Amino acid sequence: MSLKKYRERAQLLDKNDPLAAFKFHFFNPKNVIYLDGNSLGKLPKRTIDSQANLIAEQWGSRLIRSWNESWISMGERTAQKIAKLLGAAPDEVFVGDTTSLNLYKLAFAAISYSAKRNEIVSDDLNFPTDLYVFQGLINNHFPNHKLRLAKSLDGMTITTNEIKELLNDNTSLLSLSAVSYKSAFKYDMTEINKIARENGTLTLWDLSHAAGAVPIDLNGSNTDMAVGCTYKYLNGGPGAPAFLYVSKELQAKLDNPIWSWFSHKAPFDFSPNYAPDKSIQKFAVSTPTILSLDPVLNGVDLLLEAGMDKIHVKSVAQTNLLYEMISQELTKYGFTIGSPENDGLRGSHIAIIHEEGYRINAAMINPSSKDTTVVIPDFRPPNSIRLGIAPLYTSFVDLVDCVERIKQIMDTGEFKEISSTKPKVV
Ligand SMILES: *Cc1c(COP(=O)(O)O)cnc(C)c1O
């Protein structure tokens, strides 16, 4: 099929898209096709108003009175919405701190709880911060522990069997990213949780690239623990607070390694002695970050309004269309596809690989002509360009435009004018 035919097909798909109107809930900069919602989600328009009110009215006028008027319950309200999105009970999710910190707290708690076992299992597709957290825990606190990594044979996927082979009577913790940040490979959480449970191993999932991108059922899949990010598909804004989940049955067994006033059962008694809260709040550390929680609330609301089922149907249709167009139109320029072909095995982005990946990505973001549409994907070393799809605001035609623009860059050799020096944030 030619790009012209793909465009006609995409226009029809957009016309019949039940989520098409959601795009207008977001701030959409002119002449920009944004395919990086998997790294930083777009700004919901309602967040502009609620931030203005929060700052001018609640902080400016009401000052400290706002804590009791609305702020102190904001974390819990946000957590309950995230719980709904992820198939958890409302009292199983906490929102606050960051993904790395939450991972640290829960991994520490799980390793301490299963003290007789001394192996942690993860995989080499996992996000670096996750691996660093495990390495640091072993180095600083659990010197007899070992980290064992399942190795991806194709750099893209890992089979359940490869995980199973690493589990033994010594495995205390199995921690994986549900959707891999580079290839978008998606694990079957239910299946993995089952083999971990049979092995007496606790599971800790990182949902950063999964939450808001694929349907997650924490209770239905028998997940022990999870953490995740809210500034990607949940559109919570740069550095927004992360979430953590601990199943109800496990909550009493795990201790937050950071004893602090907000994990105390009565912080405002100001007692000099620590006594942990019994609820999920026991995993808190500090004063809730009110200004950053508010956008998360708005972002998650939009996902709940659209419905994860519809979002997923659209995501699958979009990743399939993109996959097909890349195969047809871009492989002749030396691109290979770095994401699974089977849509049941992937999340909501497609990675394309090219030895000039860095400069091609840079040319998409900074076209040499002012009149050319800016397409924003992102680059992951050594040579992947990630094309992220956020079905709430990505249209089918956006994907055709993206492929057309990449073709143009390859045909003209425009990327050759770009320096190979990378900026600080890629
Ligand atoms: C984005 C992401 C993080 C981010 O961690 P922060 O502590 O919020 O910076 C962690 N893990 C994964 C898998 C991610 O994709």
Provide a brief overview of the structure:
The chain is α/β, with parallel strands linked by helices. Helix content is 38%, strand content 13%. It has 13 helices and 13 strands.
Write up what this structure looks like:
The protein is α/β, with parallel strands linked by helices and 426 residues long. It has helices at 3-15, 45-61, 66-69, 74-86, 99-113, 128-140, 160-166, 189-198, 248-251, 290-306, 308-329, 357-365, 396-412, and strands spanning 32-34, 93-95, 119-123, 146-150, 171-177, 202-206, 225-228, 243-246, 336-337, 349-353, 374-376, 378-380, 384-388. It has a seven-stranded mixed beta sheet with strand order 2-8-7-6-5-3-4, with helices on both faces. β5 (171-177), α8 and β6 (202-206) form a beta-alpha-beta unit. The structure holds pyridoxal-5'-phosphate. Pyridoxal-5'-phosphate (PLP) binds next to α5 and α6.
Task: Give a topology summary.
Layout: H1 3-15, E1 32-34, H2 45-61, H3 66-69, H4 74-86, E2 93-95, H5 99-113, E3 119-123, H6 128-140, E4 146-150, H7 160-166, E5 171-177, H8 189-198, E6 202-206, E7 225-228, E8 243-246, H9 248-251, H10 290-306, H11 308-329, E9 336-337, E10 349-353, H12 357-365, E11 374-376, E12 378-380, E13 384-388, H13 396-412
Parallel strand pairs: 1-11, 3-4, 3-5, 5-6, 6-7
Antiparallel strand pairs: 2-8, 7-8, 9-10, 10-13, 12-13
